C-alpha cells in the first residue's frame, strides 16, 4: 500500500465515457484486483481498467482497491447498495464498496455486458436467448438475445405445415372431382337405358291403330250392319207381317 503522505500519481490520460453504476456485489469473481491506491476514486479506477487493461467492468472495494474484468459478477451475489457505503480514499463523494463488498460499474467500453452466470453460447455457435440482467442507476434492465437457431426451426416448421395444407387441399379437390364425374356418368347411363327401353316398347306399337279402330266404329255402313244384325224381336215380327201380305 502506498504511503499516506506520498504525492498522488497522475491520472492516466485518455478518452473516457460516463461510468454506469450496476450494483453492489458480495463476490468479486471474475474481476481481478489491481491493488490499493491511496487516492483511489472511481475516475482513477475507470482509467486504469480502460486505458491500461481495456476492460468493460470495474469494481471498487474497501475505499482503496480497484478491480477490473470482462464480465459482471454473478447476479445471485447482488446485495443492497447500503453494503457499499465506504467513501473512496481520494474522493469521499464516491462510494468505493465496503469490506468484502464491491461497487461494480461499467467503464463505458461496452453498453451491454453479461454476468458470469449468464448462459453461454449454444452448441451451434449462436447465443442463448437467456436474459442478462444489468442494473443502471438503480433501474433494472433485462437484455435478451434472440436465438437464430430457434427462429430457423420455427420457419422450417411453418413451411412444412403450409406444404401439408396444400397437399391436403389437392387431395380433397381430387376426391370431389372424381365423385362428380362418377355421378354424372352414372346419370348419363341411366338416361341412355331409359331411352333404349322406350324405343323398344314403341317398336311394337303401330302408330294410329287405336284411332283407326275408334273411327271405324263411326262409319254408316258398319252402323247399319250392326243395326240389322242386332235387331229386336219386334222388328223381326214386323218384317214377317210384311212378307205375308
TrEMBL record:
InterPro entries: Kremen_rcpt (IPR051836), WSC_carb-bd (IPR002889). It is a single-pass membrane protein. Residues 18-108 form the WSC domain. One of its GO terms (cellular component) is plasma membrane. It holds the Pfam family WSC. It is found in: Membrane. Its main location: membrane. Keywords: Glycoprotein, Membrane, Signal, Transmembrane, Transmembrane helix. Signal peptide: none annotated. The chain crosses the membrane at residues 159-183. This is WSC domain-containing protein.
